[in-house]
Specification:
Helix content: 40-55%
Strand content: 15-25%
Strand order of the largest sheet: 1-2-3
Largest sheet: 3 strands, antiparallel
Number of helices: 7
Distance between the termini: 38 Å
Oligomer: single chain
Structural class: alpha+beta
Amino acid sequence: MAAAAGVLFSDRHTTTISLNTCTVQQPQATAQRIHILFHLTATLAILYYRFTTLFGGGDVPTLPWALVTAAEVIFTFIWFLTQAFRWRPVARGVSLRNLPDDTELPGVDVFICTADPSKEPTVEVMNTVLSAMGLDYPPEKLAVYLSDDGGAPSTLYAMKEACSFAKSWLPFCRKYGIKSRCPEWFFSTYGHDELLFRTDEFEADEEKMKVSKVKF
């Protein structure tokens, strides 16, 4: 089984299940199609005038007129290529009802690459690792790999500390439905007010996470 381009399909079945909805915005599409047709009519009229004047023996300078005609043909071609999304404007949404059970989801591997701790701070790399580990996906089907091309000892040590911190950080995020699962963001002034209703239990657990983060 695999998932790609918003479609879930199985090797044992010939049917495909769409994971998104696609709806044509009909009123907008009608207005834009009328505008495109008017624009196309005017453009063809200009091109007809250019070609008939150029090849019909009109009293115009040949080289400048030919250059202007060629430029207008190129611009018309470019304009034509950009009209597809205006001819059929669509709105896409997620079709959650078609999502399979966790047991039927495919495995996902996340690769994170780093090379030089002086250019890529180790703390930021570890925050990326923890964010990937906290993805809303079945944990048993999610694997996160860190590739350190520089082979820095600090990265290896930080990875061990990050894995230790993740044992308490990830259950905390799942328990309270934390969306911003990057520790640096969550404990900043931007992510601190993510939960509007903060219980005493949450405050106590949050303080424990802050202590663990300082050690991390």
